[in-house]
């Protein structure tokens, strides 16, 4: 498969994606600087996320909407998503900036309105997050664009992954990459289960990558040795600039080394 002419496969250099996510800290200028620094690190692509707090959840103070453990402990879902969201009105400017400096930028839509926005600005590819892999209408809408589709599997059973792949293929998508993923933030390295990369490749006959939330570079480097065609890693300018994702992100020096 290819994204913007860059081939992705076992016989190619691994496709490296820098995930900005919430590491813009509410500043479009910082988002641009992060894209620029990622290009200097010689990554193949930068990825962002397309949602609003209102498209993700509701503003509710009941216990079911409060996070009880982990790095986001004590936050209500709406407030967390509000802090982390990349405003829709930034998208066109960020995509134009990435094109201007010569780096591929694409995004993860979390609902169908996000797909409509990303189609308007001509995203070259799509990523489906682990939490959305059972959202078959969303996958179907993305697949019908006929653009490369990357999907994380961290929240899915083998049968759910199969349903998602079959849905994408039956809707016209021919370029699919599955990411092995541990949906913990950060993900304990002892739970990495990297041999799942081989199992996914054998079961689904498509390109396989690693979407990594662990600390450090052991998991991604080992994943490539096992057969991963792509690596996605959260990226920040400086971990001291606290954001919802900063604790499991890597800085420019680490990204360059990876």
Structural class determined from secondary elements: alpha/beta
Strand neighbour order, sheet with most strands:
5-4-3-10-9-8-7-6
Mean pLDDT: 94
Q: What does the main sheet amount to?
A: 8 strands, parallel
Between the first and last Cα atoms, what is the distance in angstroms? 23 Å
Task: Compute the number of strand runs.
Answer: 10
Give the ordered list of helices and strands: EEEHEHHHEHEHEHEHEHEH
Question: How would you describe the shape?
Answer: globular
Strand content: 15-25%
Low-confidence stretches: none
Rounded to an integer, what's the Rg over CA atoms? 17 Å
Estimated helix fraction: 25-40%
> DSSP helix count?
10
Oligomer description: single chain
Walkthrough of the structure:
- By secondary structure, the chain is α/β, with parallel strands linked by helices.
- It contains 10 helices and 10 strands.
- Strands 5-4-3-10-9-8-7-6 form an 8-stranded parallel beta sheet. It has a two-stranded antiparallel sheet with strand order 1-2.
- It is globular and about 45 Å long.
- The chain starts with a strand and ends with a helix.
- The model has no long low-confidence stretch (mean pLDDT about 95).
Q: Secondary structure elements and their pairing?
A:
Layout: E1 2-3, E2 6-7, E3 15-19, H1 28-40, E4 45-50, H2 53-56, H3 77-84, H4 91-101, E5 104-109, H5 112-120, E6 126-128, H6 136-143, E7 149-152, H7 158-170, E8 176-181, H8 196-204, E9 207-212, H9 218-226, E10 230-234, H10 252-257
Parallel strand pairs: 3-4, 3-10, 4-5, 6-7, 7-8, 8-9, 9-10
Antiparallel strand pairs: 1-2
Helix pairs in contact: 1-4, 6-7
């Amino acid at each position: 498969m290819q994204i913007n002419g860059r081939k992705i496969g076992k016989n190619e250099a691994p496709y490296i994606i820098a995930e900005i996510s919430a590491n813009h800290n509410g500043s479009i200028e910082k988002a641009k600087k992060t894209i620029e620094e990622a290009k200097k690190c010689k990554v193949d692509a930068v990825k962002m996320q397309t949602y609003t707090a209102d498209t993700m959840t509701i503003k509710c103070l009941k216990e079911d909407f409060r996070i009880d453990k982990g790095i986001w402990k004590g936050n209500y879902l709406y407030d967390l998503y509000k802090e982390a969201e990349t405003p829709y009105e930034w998208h066109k400017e960020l995509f134009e900036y990435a094109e201007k400096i010569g780096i591929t930028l694409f995004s993860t839509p979390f609902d169908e309105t996000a797909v409509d926005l990303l189609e308007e600005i001509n995203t070259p590819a799509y990523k489906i997050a682990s939490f959305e892999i059972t959202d078959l209408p969303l996958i179907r809408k993305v697949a019908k664009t006929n653009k490369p589709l990357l999907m994380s599997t961290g929240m899915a059973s083998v049968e759910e992954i199969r349903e998602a792949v079959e849905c994408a293929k039956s809707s016209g998508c021919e370029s699919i990459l599955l990411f092995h993923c541990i949906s913990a933030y950060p993900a304990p390295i002892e739970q990495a289960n990297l041999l799942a990369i081989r199992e996914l490749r054998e079961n689904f006959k498509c390109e396989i990558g690693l979407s990594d939330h662990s600390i450090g570079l052991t998991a991604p480097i080992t994943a490539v040795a096992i057969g991963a065609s792509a690596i996605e890693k959260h990226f920040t300018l400086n971990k001291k600039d606290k954001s919802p994702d900063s604790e499991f992100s890597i800085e420019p020096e680490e990204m360059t080394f990876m």
